[in-house]
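Notebook, p. 212. Picked up where the previous page left off. The plan for this session was modest: take the two constructs that came back from the sequencing core last week, fold each one, and keep the raw output in the notebook itself so nobody has to go hunting through shared drives later. Recording the first one now, exactly as returned: residue sequence, then the structure token string.
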Amino acid sequence: MNQISPKPRQIIAKRAPTVWASGARGGRGRRPALILLAACVALLAAVPSASAVGSGSITGKVTEVKGSKTTAIAGAEVAVFTASGGFVTFANANGSGEYTASALAVGSYKVEFLAPEGSSLVGQYYKGKATLSDANPVSILTAGEKVSAINAELHEGAGISGTVTNAGHQGLENITVMAYPVGGGAEPPAAFAPTGNKGEYVITGLPSGSYEVEFAPAVGSGLDFAPQFWQASSSFSTAAIVSVTAGATTTAIDATLQPGGEIGGTVLDAVTHAPLANVLVSAEDVGEELFSTFAVTNAHGEYEITGLAGGSYRIGFFPENEGGIEYAPQYYNGASSPGPANLIEVRPESTLSGIGASLARAPLVQIAITLPPASSASGAPVSHAPPVPPAPAIALSTSELLVSGNSARVGIACASVPCSGAIEVSERVVVKQREGKRTISRRQTVVLARGSYVLAAGHSGTFKITLTATGRSRLARAPHHRLSATLAASVAGGDSAKRAVAMSEP
């Protein structure tokens, strides 16, 4: 194991997620660049909603420190969160490294600073802190207050590189290599990178320290290889440790992957026996030893999960609940909760078929609330309630988002009263996350672009949205550079607007 100075590379590392399906945060990863292992049509949890829109702002400058020199980081990403980790707003630094996060209400915030996608610099929270919990709060005490000099100096990180092959010593493409901090508890990976066409990878932007490195096929890649840790270890507890130092890359962290097992079956409606599409089928390793993964049923209700390590798995079926019909989740074989579910024994290089389910429609729940009649000062009932002022209402007039450079334009119309709020473009994807000692695949929503708007009553306009690092990465890797996404705009004091859009670039 050697250490070399960083050099130009073709495989661009991506930071890991800090957004969890439950909404909690942890780790030292890069929030805008989730581990995009495969796009799919499934969703378990939404990203935190923006807080109330205000007129305050946070400004500052993001720079890079190399030796005795300090230079501005153009395009640095600055994310503002509530103290508990809820996303509030997002800003990009200009060519001088300066940023402004605006439309902030009175409150306490945490600020995260990240270098542009592909950079080897380590992200941080204000002031120089590694985690959200340790970050210094930034407070806006009065409406319209402008808090300045919230700056950050980013430093060069460490790297890990190597090659992933099969038993025949052929390089494997589309293997995701993830670096977990040793003793990180339930933290997600600190960073990750995909392998290239010769099986090579480089992870960058790691803080100095010790890591456990996992190798696993990207979800949706179709590669049937069992995941493992360096060196050929099957668990976190036995994984070899990789030590890294800022400014250098630890090399020869290689892996040879072995074929895995497969599980397949069909998911049907319990009454009509019609096939159900877009049902997420998860295979959860019930032991500490390895990992969990999943697949999504096709139009015929069929699924196939590949690349499973040997062991006992709990199979869960989680419907998308779209199209006006809701189905209750289920575990194999017909269990309504994980405890009584039948476990499936999987062996490497073996295939188990017929692991299906018949899902029942979820019962409708109706809640009725009866309020006592209002009365006047004399005690007589009031026959008419006072008029309710109109709520702000918006409409989205954009179905095609054409990206130019790093941004696109969104058309919004405002009715009745003035409107203001946040704009987000998101996509449903599959991500891998760590839970305890295991890596879990989950459905998640990732944000591709963000912006904000302010409109007078009865007016309309077009507003700029800026791509996140995730958005740039997803669009660059999408076939024909086109993505199917969801455009959503919130409005303070009213109902949000949402519609399906196509995001593309020339």
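Okay, moving on. Second construct, recorded in the same format:
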Amino acid sequence: MLLFLVTLLFAAAADPADEPPLAAPPTQLPGEEQPPAVAAPPRFDLAHRLQDVGLSSQAYVEYLRQAALAPGDDEAFWLQMRALEVLIEAGAHDTALRHLEQLEPLPEVRMAASYTLFLEQQPGAALVEIARLDTPEASFLAGWCHLQLDDEEAAISSWRRVEGPGLLHDQALVAAHRVETWGPPPRRSPALAGVMSAVLPGAGQAYGGAWGDAGAAFLVNGLAIAGGVELARQEMWTAFALVALAEAGIWAGNVLGAVGGAHSFNRRARSRRIDRLLDDQGPVLVVGDRELGLTVQGLE
């Protein structure tokens, strides 16, 4: 029994729980270089996430909020430009122009304004802004504005002024070559369409490809003429005079409609050709990190 108690006393004296903890081994030896710090994860950009999922209004407001809280004018400006990009992507061009009016007229703002006016089918106003710039992007966009104004020679000249090398230079030459080799677009003669409908109501509309209008013109004029003939047979001259007067107006409208239909055919033929070129080579505004520029449709 005495031996057992002595053994317990020695065990308690040697209990490792009473010993001081061992020091952790050093993470860096003397003379050894400090290991590189792990980069902090990027800041969660709520506005960019909202933009990615199509919540344009919320993304725009969030960019404006970030711009108001930005520590410097430069960062605030580029957040404003990103807010503009949201508006353009959403097709809110009027709002985009009003947004740009609030910013200082820097070259980037003028470039963005000219691009937005181009999207709004206001090429003349866009060229006014472009005239104040002297960059490859400005020359590239000027070509598209001239094309909207049906001035193919000016468009080709602007594209050939795009300095290279670079993406815009190459794509400008491609666009210039395609316009040079277009040839005359399909067209209809407004005068011929009017004469055809004067002889046979609806014929001019059919010539312009408006078959529904052609059928309606033929039917309405045919009924009016048939009604007038029947009234004349019955010697109802007063009613005949009224129907004849109405038919004269209907016939004149039929002729004018054929002339307008030919003009519309020509505009549509030209617009389709320009739209196809825009789909392949058209300009796209890009807001990068502290920079703004143009890229090409399908290559952004």
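Notes on construct two before I forget. The first helix runs from residue 2 to 13.
Flagging for discussion at group meeting.
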